[in-house]
Amino acid sequence: ILDKTERLHELKEIVRKFHPVNYDVFKYVITHLNRVSQQYKTNFMTADNLSICFWPTLMRPDFENREFLSTTKIHQSIIETFIQQCQFFFYNGEIVEAPNPVACQPPPSNTVQMVEPMVPLQLPPPLQPQLIQPQLPADPLGII
């Protein structure tokens, strides 16, 4: 489909036909990827970069089929479109005209969250190499 708007509406209809659980998971993952892309100035993960990393997982390609390899850019661009247009696909928002990594912020919702909010991970301080490597004598073989 050559017309961008028509193509986006067709993709939206395809996604709406997903099984409800698959739809909810896909919505959650794409929304999260969009949140990551909003921090692109810090993490360098634009929608394009994220789609390169995640399209094989989300689309489950048949890498055994050589003809499929010629369409990898198309599949990657579909995931990029979902990330950029997640407001349109999942939150009844408008189509974003220019590729913009901060296009989608899910609306505030009173619904129950699928997972608990992330809490900061408390890690011990990094181990110092001198503490984990045994101290060797200066000349363990007695050669020098």
From TrEMBL:
All residue ranges annotated as the Rho-GAP domain in the record: 1-90
Q: Which is a GO BP term held by this UniProt record?
A: Rho protein signal transduction
Entries under InterPro entries matching the protein: Rho-GAP_domain (IPR051978), Rho_GTPase_activation_prot (IPR008936), RhoGAP_dom (IPR000198)
Question: Which Pfam families does the entry mention?
Answer: RhoGAP (PF00620)
**Which GO cellular component terms, listed alphabetically, does the Swiss-Prot or TrEMBL entry include?**
cytosol
Q: Which GO terms describe its molecular function?
A: GTPase activator activity
Cited PROSITE patterns? RHOGAP (PS50238)
Name-wise, this protein is: Rho-GAP domain-containing protein
The organism of origin for this protein? Callipepla squamata (Scaled quail)
